[in-house]
Amino acid sequence: MAQRTRRAFLNSQYAYRDTLIRFVRPGMRWLDVGCGRGIFPRWMRREEFSVLPEGVLLAGIDMDFSSLVDNKTVKYRVAGDMEHAPFRSGCFDLITANMVMEHVEEPKAALKHIHRLLKPHGLLIFHTPNYLNYQFLIASLLPQRLKNALALWLEGRREEDVFPTRYRLNTVRKIRRLARECGFDIVSLDLINSTPVTERIPLLSWIEKLFMRISDIPPLRILRSNIIAVLRRVGRESETADGEAIQAAATPFA
């Protein structure tokens, strides 16, 4: 997939990277949910260590074991899901999810599990599509087999890296409501556009770029393609776990 087309169209993964750089601090205990083969997509692997200051303990969890084996950035990896994450309450300063929340079946339950794992005032940062963008409205109507084929043709993503989407935490309004219900404050909610994905189809590419420019009009920014959310856990002090507890729960890969 092309990482850039023109200067005006920067992939949203770069904005997500910059958000991580802003909030990750030395010594943090960080869990990446849906870590798969890396924190960022395959074409952006070299950027991963730019978001890892000294002393960060980075763990990851993903349901796809083969992806975990390929992950060269996250040392401590768990094969499983959030509902059964083998970590004690209050383990982490930071939990992240890059293009994961759109796949979650029960977002309220997921947020409650994340709330439990975070220390008081810990952060949840996630990058996800905006369901109000026309591309994702259309994508939600397509059969999975067709979506797999389009992902391979337009983005170079193999079938094993394409998962069913639910879009149940993918509007600003829904994020605000569920965050409040699950004990989070909103630090920031940024709506951004990303690199056009239809470069191989000139007419569709022209339409996509036109739509992106239209969505720069302030009242229409709600239609931009991606959301980067930063939420802060609120609530009572909870039991916290040290680094040894996290290491014991996860498997270090050489």
* Element order: H for helix, E for strand: HEEHEEHEHHHEHEHE
Reported by name, the CATH topology is Rossmann fold
CA gyration radius, whole angstroms: 18 Å
C-alpha termini separation: 30 Å
What would CATH call the architecture? 3-Layer(aba) Sandwich
Please give the largest β-sheet. Answer: 8 strands, mixed
Into which percentage range does the β-strand content fall? Answer: 15-25%
Annotation keywords:
single chain, 254 residues, alpha/beta, Rossmann fold, 8-stranded mixed sheet, 30% helix, 21% strand, disordered N terminus
How would you summarize what this structure contains?
The chain is an alpha/beta fold and 254 residues long.
What this model shows, in words?
This protein is α/β, with parallel strands linked by helices and 254 residues long. It has a single domain (12-131, 166-197, 225-252), classed as Rossmann fold. Helices cover 30% and strands 21% of the residues. The chain is built from eight helices and eight strands, in the order αββαββαβαααβαβαβ. It has an eight-stranded mixed beta sheet, sandwiched between helices. It is globular, with a radius of gyration of 18 Å. 36% of the residues are buried. Mean pLDDT is 87; it is low at 1-8.
List the helices and strands and how they pair.
Layout: H1 12-23, E1 29-33, E2 57-62, H2 65-70, E3 76-79, E4 92-98, H3 107-117, E5 118-129, H4 134-139, H5 144-155, H6 172-181, E6 184-192, H7 202-214, E7 226-233, H8 243-249, E8 251-252
Parallel strand pairs: 1-2, 1-4, 2-3, 4-5
Antiparallel strand pairs: 3-8, 5-7, 6-7
